[in-house]
Amino acid sequence: MAESSFDVHVVREFDAPIERVWAAWTTPSDLREWWGPDGFTCPRAEADVRPGGRILVTMRAPDDWGGFEQHSAWEIVELEAPRLLRYVFRFTDAAGAPITPADAGIPADGIPERGEHEVVLSEVGDERTRLDMTEHGYTTVDARDMSQAGLEQCLDKMAALVDRRPLGSGR
User: Fold this and answer.
1) What is the pLDDT along the chain (171 residues), one digit of tens a residue?
2) Domain 8-164 CATH superfamily
């Protein structure tokens, strides 16, 4: 993957073991709790977690934003549980068929139709995990900044999830 000055790159540490953070990325019930920026919900998450599989998610905007739904697929390219998840992000219709960012209602130019994403997890001691995530393909600073702001909010929600609920504890 070629580096671009418009890539999103985020590094975070979570107060949770690597297996718990991995589960947050790959388990539908967990994805429904953190996917989407502040105020958004995730009413649908489906996961076929294997190379060639895909994760489908739907995020719903708050009512004061019109309550619209935005669907996307993460087409898994490479997987090394619990350390590496490489996927291609695409906006989709409700059935999972690819659509353009404009057709998905994305207001910013510069959002790729196929965005290569990489999530790398590593252990930091026994009970902490470092996430190093890169999203490739943005062609404008505004698109990159919009995506990074949303990702940071999603990861804040993920941190709250993994910090409060151990792996396998259910609801």
Assistant:
1) 444 569 999 999 999 999 999 999 999 999 999 999 999 999 999 999 999 999 999 999 999 999 999 999 999 999 999 999 999 999 999 999 999 999 998 876 899 999 999 999 999 988 999 999 999 999 999 999 999 999 999 999 999 999 866 655 554
2) START domain (3.30.530.20)
Q: Where along the chain do its domains lie?
A: 8-164
> Hey, which residues does 92 pair with through a beta bridge?
71, 98
8 A C-beta contact, residue 92 and residue 73: yes
DSSP letters, the chain, are ----TT-EEEEEEESS-HHHHHHHHH-HHHHHHH-SSTT-EEEEEEE--STT-EEEEEEE--GGGT--EEEEEEEEEEEETTTEEEEEEEEE-TTS-B--TTTTT--STT--SSEEEEEEEEE-SSS-EEEEEEE----SHHHHHHHHHHHHHHHHHHHHHHHHS-TT---
Whole-model pTM: value is 0.90
Max Cα–Cα distance, the chain, nearest Å: 44
Residue of 22, 21, 71 lying closest to 46 (CA atoms): 71
